[in-house]
């Protein structure tokens, strides 16, 4: 028979073996329930017939045994439960110590399980973040990013229904961005509902924390009713904050018979913190894309006006309208800054201002002065803080808030664009207005480039015309007069002397030759700059040109008044060159020419029914005509399909305003 010492030794060996078996299970990463069951089973076998159980802190051991030993299970310093061994017979002296060892192993298994769960949750969240971040990096649409966020939240929480909801703090309205519910959704994607019908959103607004709703039974409103009808139960939701402000929330819904695990709202909150940056990036990209599209469309509309040679007033009215549309404000003025401090109104969205002599507002002048001082955007929200008399006048204009931003062309302050509002303007509008001034700067630069080109062409044409006039005068006053004198002298010499017949005939031939040369010089000088055009105007000059043309001409130019000399010259040379080309190349029986003028424009058309095929290109006399017409702000159009004749249309303004006509600094 074993002695007491031997029995104690044998018990100790059994206890050590049991502890090793449990420790091995835990070290191998066995599931939590397996490890905990092994702890209870090993302890129960060791201390049989003692009853072994685990009691949670709020529970009570279910035993009426006379003897009991307890060991606390501490997980991360917190009492998780108590391991109890109870028996009607006395327990071994080592039972308390060994039970404590088992309790420690149990705590280790629980802690390891928690760690594995936390690591798994972190890995899942990081995997979700990588998926969403990849979409953002690939410039996916915001809707695709938002859908991915909702899907990943559903996967992490292991639920079927997740909604990403945006909140409008101004209207207290929620908008559902995306949901994984499908047809069971209480609110469709893109749908809106008020705060009183969004219980989880209302709780988030109230607490600022993740929330949980376990019972929807008595919640009012159509959304809650639909939620119940579709068989959903518990809900957890977590706020999404962007730049310190509430953007919205993510809500996850379990089925009616499901129980969402404790801490689900915390896991969802951790997930939303990771996703917030992705949502912000997607939203920022969408904002930039939208802004680029708006500015691109605005620039194209303004550029079209520039290309159509619209007046500066029309162009800058369009610029003001585009700024008004982009910034969502009603009153925008565009001004030209001058060196003496004045500001001239170029464009405005206010019809009354435009029709009232284009006077710049006093509020606009004051904010422009600040723009001049700082070289950057400025705003005025409090007129009472300005001591000047002008501030009182500005206040009486009725604008509560005024913001101005500089327009720079070639790094120099050219003008200003001003927003005027009867209510306080939103913060940050200075930046958006500054961005928009780049459009204005490019438009101004384009108009200036156009005007510079037109002015350069005009100077070239004017110089060419002056040379033509000088040559014509020199021919008329010099060579023509000498030829006339020579002819008269020759005829006088022939008449005074009795000459042999052959010599007389020879002198007669020379006199005729001098007359022919004189006529050629006269025709050449008229081609350079016909005197009749200067003396009598376009109608008589064209009629003479038509009579002398080598091809029949049907001319309609009745009632054309005297026009500015550059315009008359341009029309005359266009008709002259077109008639010459038609005579050489068209094989047409006739050319029709029509000229008409009204208060602001002169138009001319030269057309034939010849072989067509004319083109503007190197070596063509039409190139110089195009330059001449466009130098005067006009249009030159050539239509000449092969076999269908040729038509030239020109249109010239009788008055034209350019930026160069405006007051300069």
TrEMBL record:
Enzyme class, first EC level, given as a word: transferase
Start and end residues of each Histidine kinase/HSP90-like ATPase domain: 566-656
PROSITE patterns for this protein: P_GLUCOSE_ISOMERASE_1 (PS00765)
EC number: 2.7.13.3
Signal peptide positions (record): none
InterPro entries given in the database record: GAF (IPR003018), GAF-like_dom_sf (IPR029016), HATPase_C_sf (IPR036890), HATPase_dom (IPR003594), Phosphoglucose_isomerase_CS (IPR018189), Sensor_HK_TwoCompSys (IPR050482), Sig_transdc_His_kin_sub3_dim/P (IPR011712)
CDD domains on file: HATPase_UhpB-NarQ-NarX-like
Catalytic activity: ATP + protein L-histidine = ADP + protein N-phospho-L-histidine
GO CC terms, sorted: membrane
Alphabetic keyword roster: ATP-binding, Kinase, Nucleotide-binding, Phosphoprotein, Transferase, Two-component regulatory system
GO MF assignments: ATP binding; glucose-6-phosphate isomerase activity; phosphorelay sensor kinase activity; protein dimerization activity
Domain GAF: 141-289, 311-454
Any GO BP: gluconeogenesis
Regions that span the bilayer: none
Annotated protein name in UniProt: histidine kinase
Record lineage: Bacteria, Bacillati, Actinomycetota, Actinomycetes, Frankiales
């Amino acid at each position: 028979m074993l002695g007491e010492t031997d029995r104690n030794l044998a018990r100790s060996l059994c206890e050590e073996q049991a502890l090793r078996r449990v420790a091995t299970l835990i070290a191998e990463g066995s599931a939590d329930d397996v490890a905990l069951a092994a702890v209870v089973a090993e302890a129960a076998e060791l201390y049989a017939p003692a009853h072994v159980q685990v009691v949670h802190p709020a529970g009570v051991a279910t035993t009426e045994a006379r003897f009991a030993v307890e060991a606390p299970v501490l997980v991360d310093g917190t009492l998780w439960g108590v391991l109890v061994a109870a028996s009607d017979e006395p327990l071994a002296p080592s039972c308390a110590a060994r039970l404590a060892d088992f309790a420690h192993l149990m705590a280790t298994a629980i802690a390891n399980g928690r760690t594995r769960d936390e690591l798994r949750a972190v890995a899942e969240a990081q995997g979700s973040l990588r998926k969403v971040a990849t979409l953002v990096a690939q410039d996916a649409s915001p809707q695709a990013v938002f859908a991915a966020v909702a899907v990943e939240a559903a996967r992490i929480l292991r639920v079927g229904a997740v909604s990403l909801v945006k909140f409008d703090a101004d209207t207290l309205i929620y908008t559902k961005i995306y949901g994984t519910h499908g047809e069971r959704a209480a609110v469709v994607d893109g749908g809106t509902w008020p705060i009183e019908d969004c219980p989880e959103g209302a709780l988030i607004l109230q607490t600022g924390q993740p929330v949980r709703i376990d019972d929807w039974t008595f919640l009012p409103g159509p959304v809650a009713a639909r939620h119940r009808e579709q068989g959903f139960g518990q809900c957890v939701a977590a706020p999404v904050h962007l730049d310190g402000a509430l953007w919205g929330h993510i809500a996850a819904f379990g089925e009616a018979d499901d129980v969402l695990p404790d801490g689900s709202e915390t896991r969802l909150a951790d997930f939303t913190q990771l996703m917030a940056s992705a949502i912000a990036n997607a939203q920022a990209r969408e904002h930039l894309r939208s802004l680029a599209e708006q500015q691109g469309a605005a620039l194209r509309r303004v550029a079209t006006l520039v290309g159509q040679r619209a007046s500066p007033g029309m162009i800058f009215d369009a610029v003001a309208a585009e700024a008004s549309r982009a910034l969502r404000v009603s009153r925008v003025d565009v001004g030209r800054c001058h060196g003496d401090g004045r500001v001239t109104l170029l464009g405005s969205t206010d019809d009354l201002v435009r029709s009232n002599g284009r006077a710049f507002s006093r509020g606009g002048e004051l904010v422009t002065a600040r723009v001049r001082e700082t070289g950057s955007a400025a705003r005025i929200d409090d007129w009472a803080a300005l001591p000047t008399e002008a501030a009182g006048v500005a206040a009486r204009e009725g604008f509560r808030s005024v913001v101005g931003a500089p327009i720079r062309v070639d790094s120099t302050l050219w003008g200003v664009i001003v927003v005027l509002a009867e209510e306080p303007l939103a913060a940050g509008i200075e930046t958006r207005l500054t961005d928009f001034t780049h459009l204005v700067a490019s438009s101004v630069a384009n108009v200036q480039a156009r005007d510079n080109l037109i002015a350069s062409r005009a100077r070239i044409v004017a110089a060419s015309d002056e040379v033509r006039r000088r040559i014509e005068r020199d021919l008329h006053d010099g060579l023509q007069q000498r030829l006339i004198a020579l002819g008269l002298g020759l005829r006088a010499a022939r008449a005074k002397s009795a000459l042999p017949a052959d010599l007389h005939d020879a002198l007669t031939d020379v006199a005729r030759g001098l007359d022919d040369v004189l006529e050629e010089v006269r025709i050449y000088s008229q081609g350079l700059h016909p005197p009749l055009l200067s003396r009598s105007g376009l109608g008589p000059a064209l009629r003479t040109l038509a009579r002398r043309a080598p091809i029949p001409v049907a001319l309609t130019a009745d009632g054309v008044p005297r026009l500015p000399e550059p315009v008359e010259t341009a029309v005359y040379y266009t008709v002259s060159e077109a008639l010459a080309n038609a005579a050489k190349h068209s094989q047409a029986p006739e050319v029709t020419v029509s000229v008409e003028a009204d208060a602001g424009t002169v138009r001319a058309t030269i057309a034939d029914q010849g072989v067509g095929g004319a083109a503007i290109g190197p070596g063509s006399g039409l190139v110089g005509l195009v330059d001449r017409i466009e130098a005067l702000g006009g249009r030159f159009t050539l239509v000449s399909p092969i076999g269908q004749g040729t038509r030239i249309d020109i249109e010239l303004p009788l008055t034209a305003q350019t930026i160069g006509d405006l007051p300069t600094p």
